[in-house]
Write a structure and sequence with these properties.
- The protein is α+β, with helices and mostly antiparallel strands.
- The protein has 2 domains: 69 residues, OB fold (Dihydrolipoamide Acetyltransferase, E2P) (Beta Barrel); 162 residues, Recombination protein O, C-terminal domain (de novo design (two linked rop proteins), Up-down Bundle).
- It is built from 7 helices and 7 strands, in the order βββββααααββααα.
- Strands 3-2-1-4-5 form a 5-stranded antiparallel β-sheet. Strands 6-7 form a two-stranded antiparallel ribbon.
- The longest helix has 19 residues.
- It binds zinc ion.
Length: 236
Amino acid sequence: MRAIILRTIPYQENAKLIYAYTPYGLKSAVARGVLKMNSPLKLAADPFKLLDIELSDKALPTLKSVKLVAHYPNTKANYEKTLLPHIIGETILKNVTDDDDHPKLFSLLVKTFEGIEHAEDGFDFLAMFMLKVLYFLGFGLKLGACHICGAQDGLGFDLKNHQTLCVAHGANASDQAWHEQLTAWLKADALDYHASPRDLTFKRQVFALVRTLYQDALDFNARSFQMYQNYLKETP
Ligand SMILES: [Zn+2]
C-alpha cells in the first residue's frame, strides 16, 4: 500500500518503530534491521517520502518490504521547506482518528508534499493543508455569511477575532482580501494550484491564525509549530 512515514523512533537494536499514514489510516510497524547499511528496508529509516510498503498481519506488524514512489529532494534542500512536513506530520499523527476519510486525506497529503516540493515557496500549500484539515475534522472556518446578520455579500474576515463580517458590520478592504484568500485556499485543488512567493509578514499572520484555530478547536499545539514560528520570527 501507498504510505508516507510521518515519524520514526528507535526500537531495539538496528530497528525502528515507524508511524505511517496510508489511504487506510495510520499504521505503525516495526522496521527490523532498518539501520543496517545494507538493509532492504533502508528507505523507511527516515520520514516524509512517498513509499509503497507491505506489512505483516500481526498485532504489531513488521515492515516486510518498501519501494520508493517519490522522494522530495527540493524540500530537503531548503531549510524553511524542511520544517513544513514536520508540521503536517504532527497534525495528522495527533488529530486524525480511525473514523476519518483516509483516502481523501491521504490524497491531500501527497498533493501537499508535491506542491511544497515544486513551488518556489511552499507556504501556500501548508496554509491550504492546515485549513482544509480543520474542515475535515469538523472545525472549519465559517466563511459563508456575516456572523452577525447572515449577509452573504461583500464579506470580510477579521483576522483578530476570527469572524466573518459584512461591510455594514465592519468588514474593511483588508478583511475582504483575507476572506478572499482563505476562500481561495479552501476551494483550491493543491494539484493545479500556483503558489506565489509570500513575504514574512503574510506568513506570520497566516501561521498565527492557523495556530490559534488549532489551539481553540482541538487544543492542539505542536512542537513543530513553535519551530516554524521561531523561523518566521528570526529571519530578517
Ligand atoms: Zn452583517
